[in-house]
């Protein structure tokens, strides 16, 4: 939801920055790769070292500029299927790194252990990671077979804002010894489980959306909606 509502604002804010990048000769693909590299580094270094506040803030700064590469591509008229593929692939790597970093931090520093919440956090975090990747795959696969699946309760922007905000607050509640105040542990737990549940709810929404698009066309041909057996995936 946030990605759709925030797009006009992002274009207004980062349009001038994109123009500067164009004048400096910085390509959209370079911005995509650099942003992903920074997110992965911050997530897999700072979270495991016990610096969730710094990790969340620095990743948040990079994520704010997520739409910059697309604006550069439009300004330079270099938007292409390759650029879209690269951007989507880099997003998946960055998302996985963020959740992996959070999970390592939770496990290594026993976040929420004093309240008996750590194991539930780990389950919620793993579920949120799997749900996020499946959500993105569902949309990509739908578009690959000619349908649209850009609907859903929890999109990438929602996942990033909620996970980083919760990690930031939990980090503020963490003492130097690694123990976390009750309110911080509960915020992180609820955020991860919300992303877990909302993610799979979004997958269901996208499956239904594609089914509704596929059924009329296939019904006209007198066949059932296509399945993997009739439309093999190219790997």
TrEMBL record:
Belongs to the CDP-alcohol phosphatidyltransferase class-I family. It comes from Actinobaculum massiliense ACS-171-V-Col2. The active site is at 91 (proton acceptor). Mg(2+) 1 binds at residues 66, 69, 87. Mg(2+) 2 binds at residues 66, 87, 91. It is found in: Cell membrane. One of its GO terms (biological process) is phospholipid biosynthetic process. The keyword Plastid does not apply. Coiled coil: none annotated. GO terms for cellular component: plasma membrane. Catalyzes the conjugation of the 1'-hydroxyl group of D-myo-inositol-3-phosphate (also named L-myo-inositol-1-phosphate) with a lipid tail of cytidine diphosphate diacylglycerol (CDP-DAG), forming phosphatidylinositol phosphate (PIP) and CMP. PIP is a precursor of phosphatidylinositol (PI) which is an essential lipid required for cell wall formation. Pfam families: CDP-OH_P_transf. This is Phosphatidylinositol phosphate synthase. Pathway: Phospholipid metabolism; phosphatidylinositol phosphate biosynthesis; Lipid metabolism. Homodimer. The chain crosses the membrane at residues 21-47, 53-72, 93-111, 117-138, 159-177, 183-203. Gene3D superfamilies: 1.20.120.1760. It is a multi-pass membrane protein. One of its GO terms (molecular function) is phosphotransferase activity, for other substituted phosphate groups. Its EC number is 2.7.8.-. Its cofactor is Mg(2+). Its main location: membrane. InterPro entries: CDP-OH_P_trans (IPR000462), CDP-OH_PTrfase_TM_dom (IPR043130), CDP_ALCOHOL_P_TRANSF_CS (IPR048254), PIP_synthase_PgsA1 (IPR044268). Keywords: Cell membrane, Lipid biosynthesis, Lipid metabolism, Magnesium, Membrane, Metal-binding, Phospholipid biosynthesis, Phospholipid metabolism, Transferase, Transmembrane, Transmembrane helix.
């Amino acid at each position: 939801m946030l990605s759709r509502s925030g797009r006009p604002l992002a274009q207004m804010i980062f349009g001038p920055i994109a123009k500067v990048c164009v004048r400096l000769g910085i390509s959209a693909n370079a911005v995509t790769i650099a942003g992903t590299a920074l997110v992965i580094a911050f997530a897999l270094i700072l979270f495991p070292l016990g610096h969730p506040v710094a990790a969340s803030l620095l990743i948040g700064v990079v994520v704010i500029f997520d739409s910059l590469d697309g604006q550069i591509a439009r300004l330079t008229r270099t938007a292409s299927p390759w650029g879209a593929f690269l951007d989507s692939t880099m997003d998946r790597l960055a998302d996985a790194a963020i959740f992996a970093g959070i999970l390592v931090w939770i496990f290594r520093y026993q976040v929420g252990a004093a309240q008996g919440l750590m194991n539930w956090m780990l389950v919620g975090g793993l579920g949120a990671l799997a749900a996020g990747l499946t959500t993105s795959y569902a949309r990509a696969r739908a578009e690959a077979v000619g349908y649209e699946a850009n609907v859903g309760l929890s999109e990438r922007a929602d996942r990033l804002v909620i996970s980083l905000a919760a990690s930031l607050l939990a980090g503020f509640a963490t003492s130097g010894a690694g123990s976390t105040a009750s309110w911080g542990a509960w915020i992180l737990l609820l955020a991860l489980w919300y992303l877990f549940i909302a993610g799979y709810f979004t997958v269901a929404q996208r499956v239904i959306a594609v089914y509704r698009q596929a059924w009329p066309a296939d019904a006209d041909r007198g066949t059932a909606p296509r399945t993997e057996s009739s439309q093999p995936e190219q790997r």
